[in-house]
Amino acid sequence: MIKLCLKPEGTGEQVMNQKTDGLVSRLGVLAFIVGMAAMLSSCGKPAESRQAQVVKIDGSSTVYPITNAIAAEYQAAQTKANNDKIKVEFALSGTGGGFKTFCEGLTDISNASRPILKQEMALCNRNNVRYIELPIAFDALTVVVHPENNWAKDITVEELRKAWEPAAEGKITKWNQVRSSWPDRPLKLYGAGKDSGTFDYFTEATVGTSKASRNDYTASEDDNVLVQGVRQDVNALGYFGLAYYEANSNQLKALAVDSGKGAVLPSRQTVEKTRYQPLSRPMFIYVNYQSAQNKPEVRDFVEFFLEKAPTLVDDVGYIPLPDEGYHLAKVHFNRGKVGTVFGGQTQLNLTLGELLRKQATF
């Protein structure tokens, strides 16, 4: 688990336990002096002694760039409004790991790169944790190679299955075993760890069964680890979220993906036109209903999130929802609409329009 903490500068508690290669913006703001009497009364007392209002977030590293960017703007706005007590704490446990802590009532918000699953719903139910499901963006899962790879420009879904299915373990170890015209070179695979929603989605979309994958590959729930692996290995083939490719596109090469209708590169345009299938997917935050009701800082943060998401989702390299999607998310949040529209399972080939129809009928 990777833990990160954002807090106004001067609190002495800004923590970063792992570098995140340009996708983590470092928030520097000035604490406001509330008045001479308050200043004198606090002389000699550490900043930590002041009671902090904490928004606790865990989950997907794929969704993290969005939440981090919004949290940075939120805390800057809070500091400008003379509020230096709010702290946003992050952990990057992957979607599955994040739902575990969320459904145990330990976090306020869970970042998720897939919908909540039935077993996670059951855990939430056992612990009396109700949740509000808020779609926030679309992703185009991106298949990448080293920039000096001069033989692969595209790959079919069937070839992805051949490379990643459980039966490939220890057997499909060369590039020319995936496509005969590719060279007789070692095939080095980099992909999401098993607590990752990206792992769940990718395996279902390519192999046909969620979590069905070979085990002999470099795995991580942190997309930055995968970025570094691929950029340093000319024989690499990997996959991760679009924003991580966009932030490192000068060090990586994306492959066009062919699902039977021609090879298509991942982009905002190909997702919006429903051409990049089956690797486009919605992303979410799940909000603890009780936190939203009882913690004003959580409600305030989520409202700020939904207001800023259209711009900041695009800024970090993902695909914003249409305006109607954010409007529906605000309506559901303000009404405290608990539950999920996905029935505890992932839906492949979902389009932006289909997501809006699901939201509208919830």
TrEMBL record:
<comment type="similarity">
    <text>Belongs to the PstS family.</text>
</comment>
<dbReference type="InterPro" id="IPR050811">
    <property type="entry name" value="Phosphate_ABC_transporter"/>
</dbReference>
<dbReference type="InterPro" id="IPR011862">
    <property type="entry name" value="Phos-bd"/>
</dbReference>
<dbReference type="GO" id="GO:0006817">
    <property type="term" value="P:phosphate ion transport"/>
</dbReference>
<keyword id="KW-0813">Transport</keyword>
<dbReference type="Pfam" id="PF12849">
    <property type="entry name" value="PBP_like_2"/>
</dbReference>
<dbReference type="InterPro" id="IPR024370">
    <property type="entry name" value="PBP_domain"/>
</dbReference>
<keyword id="KW-0592">Phosphate transport</keyword>
<feature type="domain" description="PBP">
    <location>
        <begin position="48"/>
        <end position="306"/>
    </location>
</feature>
<keyword id="KW-0732">Signal</keyword>
<protein>
    <recommendedName>
        <fullName>Phosphate-binding protein</fullName>
    </recommendedName>
</protein>
<dbReference type="GO" id="GO:0042301">
    <property type="term" value="F:phosphate ion binding"/>
</dbReference>
<comment type="function">
    <text>Involved in the system for phosphate transport across the cytoplasmic membrane.</text>
</comment>
